[in-house]
Amino acid sequence: MAEFFDRVRPGEGPGLALFLNAGDPPLDVLADLVLMLDEEGVDCLELAVPFPDSVTDGPVIRRSARRALDLGTGLDEVLAFIADVRPRLRRLRIALLADWSHSLKHREPDAVLRTIAASGADGLLVHALPPRLRTAHYAAAREAKLPIVTTCYQQSPPPTMAEAAAEATAYLYLVAHYGRSGTAPVAGHAALAGTVAALRAHTTSPIAIGFGVRTRQDVEAVGACGADAVIIGSAGVARIEQSLDQGGDVVDDFRAFVRSVSPTRSTTPERTGS
To answer: Structure pTM?
Structure first.
């Protein structure tokens, strides 16, 4: 089983995860972009099956999802994409993000988790999973040997935070700010140090922080609060949108973005395990 962020060496700063909607850019371009992320030493790609009108996403990611949906990108297409690209990666892990209502609700739960695992996805984050289904989801994921990403907010009740931490087998996503993606916590990411320390009591999995991370300074602030990794979403998706609008080279433009936010580290290729 692949471990997320285990290639990060002491003193290299937090692990780096990037969020993108599958299909934005189109999948043929996205394949080259994913290989570039691997070359650049990015640790994790949160690859979303696009879904419409997300209440937790800001306008940048919602526009991205609409572009991908307009190209007909769905769960089956994304799993085929992962199956094609994953064997060519040396460092990068892929965590699939799928909305329960849009992508999973009408599929048999155990079967779809086995299919996701068979695609080569390194982990799964289910968006908007109804609380009543969590226990069954955790059990099915364990049976499928599919690591799962769980989420919580700094403002989540302590029992919710403890459950999310205990059940995370890929990593725990600590959402920095209760609101829509792209918004940052008022007190800054460094103020999350106490929450990270409290979560450590309930998990041995990595803790990643996202929402409102736009610059290398933000990345460093996340690292300073004790998190294992940082997740960048809206800022990167905005760079994709800008490149598409201007007719630029999406891969080269996104490479420049990655280098602008990445902590200094070795990018020596290493073959990922499973």
So the answer is: 0.94
